[in-house]
Design a protein that fits this description.
Layout lengths: L4 H7 L2 H17 L3 H10 L10 H14 L5 E2 L5 E3 L21 E3 L3 H12 L5 E11 L11 E12 L5 H21 L6 E6 L2 H15 L6 E3 L11 E9 L4 E9 L1 H6 L4 E9 H5 L10
Parallel strand pairs: 1-4, 6-7
Antiparallel strand pairs: 2-3, 4-5, 5-10, 6-8, 8-9, 9-10
Helix pairs in contact: 6-7
């Protein structure tokens, strides 16, 4: 590429750059032959279908929807979000996200998009609870046996802080209780566990004196995980994790973020996100016998 070309392209107005890129895509698509499409279908990790049985997934996700608290609104997200939706609020490389030529990006994490939607709804409610089932696409290579696209069940809750970690405790208990209900019904034999890590001393106190007593004992135990390293710098206050098979397989993750605080320009806003990989759970359901 000639010197200065990248800078010149980056300096173009969005509409001019989009017109240029669409023209290039049109020309390249016009040169593609059917045999090339089939070869690309077989070789490209981004386009190969998932190995999951959609009938099993549909039944599983339908049951999860039925278990959702009635005050949580379901959202059917678009496949794309504005360019920078993740990178603008989180320490995420755009190289891990599939960007489009129209100033959008393919959703790589539904919690980011749900946080934007939650911020948009906050003026109409004191607190917002949203949920979505969504197939995400990620650009990083997870290895030969892993798909670059998979379905996630995502929750986002946002509200204004009332101080002393009380808001964090209430939201944590809400999300942990929901995932406990899901795992108790859909994966009781898979040794499910919930894990929580305090990233703030005040939130740690509320975990001890509020969350744990209210959570109680159950088939799905709640483990403290102070040694957790992953997610520090991404999550604030507290992080959570969902695992199966006595902690041999991760199926979910979450924690507090400052996304809605940054979107709304209000440092008092508290946002808890969490998600679970439904395809990993689907293999353990009573319907994983071919969808019958």
């Amino acid at each position: 590429m000639p010197a200065g070309s990248r800078e010149a392209l980056a300096a173009l107005p969005a509409t001019d750059l989009r017109t240029l890129l669409l023209g290039v895509a049109r020309d390249r698509a016009g040169a593609v032959r059917p045999a090339q499409v089939l070869r690309r279908w077989n070789e490209d990790r981004f386009v190969r279908p998932s190995a999951a049985d959609p009938r099993v997934l549909s039944r599983l996700e339908g049951r999860i929807w039925a278990l959702l608290p009635p005050d949580a609104a379901g959202v059917e997200l678009s496949p794309v979000a504005p360019l920078g939706t993740c990178a603008a609020v989180a320490p995420v490389s755009q190289h891990r996200i599939v960007s489009t030529m129209r100033g959008t990006e393919v959703i790589s994490d539904p919690t980011n998009a749900l946080a934007v939607e939650a911020a948009a709804r906050r003026s109409q409610a004191d607190e917002v609870h949203l949920a979505a089932m969504h197939r995400v696409l990620r650009a990083q290579d997870f290895g030969p046996d892993a798909s670059t696209h998979f379905r996630l069940c995502a929750l986002v809750s946002t509200t204004r802080d009332t101080g002393s970690g009380r808001t964090e405790a209430r939201l944590l208990l809400r999300h942990l209780t929901f995932w406990r209900t899901v795992l108790t019904e859909l994966a009781p034999a898979a040794a499910p566990r919930l894990h929580v890590t305090a990233l703030d001393p005040i939130v740690g106190e509320r975990l001890h004196d509020t969350v744990r007593p209210a959570f109680g004992d159950s088939l799905v135990p709640l483990h403290d995980e102070p040694e957790r390293k992953r997610g520090r710098g991404y999550y604030r206050g507290a992080a959570l994790r969902v695992s199966l098979h006595d902690d041999k397989r991760d199926v979910g993750d979450g924690g507090f973020t400052d996304w809605t605080a940054r979107l709304l320009g209000d440092a008092k806003e508290r946002c808890l996100i969490s998600c679970l990989a439904t395809e990993r759970l689907a293999d353990l359901t009573p319907w994983s016998d071919g969808g019958r």
